[in-house]
Amino acid sequence: MATATKLRLLVVNGDTALRQGLAQALGQHPAIHVVGWAISGRTAMLKLASYQPDMVLLDLDQHPAEALELLAHLRSNALPVQRLLLASEAVPADTLQQAAQLGALDLVARPAGSLGEAAIVKVAHDVLPPILRHAHRLGERAGGGPAAAPAPAVRPVAHAAQPAAPAVMPRLPGATRSTAIVGIGVSTGGPKALTQLLPMLPADFPLPIVLVQHMPPKFTLSLAESLDKVCRLRVREAQEGDRVERGRILIAPGGQHMRIVASDLGGVVHLTNDPPECSCRPSVDYLFRSLTEVYGGRVLAAVLTGMGEDGWIGARLVHQAGGKVLAQDEASSTVYGMPRGPIEAGIAPAVPLELMADAIVQCLRGVSCN
User: Fold this and answer.
1) Active-site position among 33, 63, 214, 319
2) Which of 83, 171, 209, 280 sits CB 3.0–4.6 Å from 369 for a disulfide?
């Protein structure tokens, strides 16, 4: 395969062993061309013009302030460079949140501190799938490409300076039976989408919300803590036995499935280590399926931005049970993978992210635009 069809990767990492190990391991893949490396975000900014990378692999553990400067630089200059982040659980929640708001494509966990050879190989193995998904897109655009599973298009985030037509509320599903719970599924681009959506929900929101965000273990706790600071509703990482309660948002822990089960106290959280579904654990399908088992048609499901198809089967089950389904539209999605299935099947309207909170509230009130 010609170099022109390879993904041009810039490795930004202050740990010499990890930087060199990642560059060597990833550079051996036929779909990846490691164009260079930088020890910090500021150094990387000086190298962008000469290296012209398609993606930067950026370590938040090393020089986090400079890493955020690089992300801000890429965003403010509207540079077509995707950002794939490495971070350990030692990275503060507010740093993760800022990185997400600055357009991080995906987040991959790594152990804290200096790493040995085996750990570096494991990190390289973990970052390879999201890199290859973007490499496949570049290959398709060039008329060829690496042999990888098809990936949905990654769409740049719109900036305030770019003119955009005002968002229009689509026709929403009409009233069926009273809704009892809201389920949300999201993946790539999720932290940014959730930071925009969830604070828009009113303090008197009448129902519990349960949510799956594809993230590694430990990072969902940081996400919940950061969202709790900006939302009118309480946000926490779910724990075994938690009751689903009005005015509270429960986020499935990374690495564990979350299902809601019936009890004498109402719906409660049950966490499992069942096999991944759609290569995901937690899985949106797994959560949505449990909601239909407990609440039948009294479920409102929202499928947001993300790679892959997790949530499509679950959304179909919600629809078949008589519940309602909403999905984020293509234009506002970072990756139009997960929402595509419900929208193209005609079981969910395509809702711009900026209108999703209003759409959820309207559906709960039985309002229909039909």
Assistant:
1) 214
2) 171
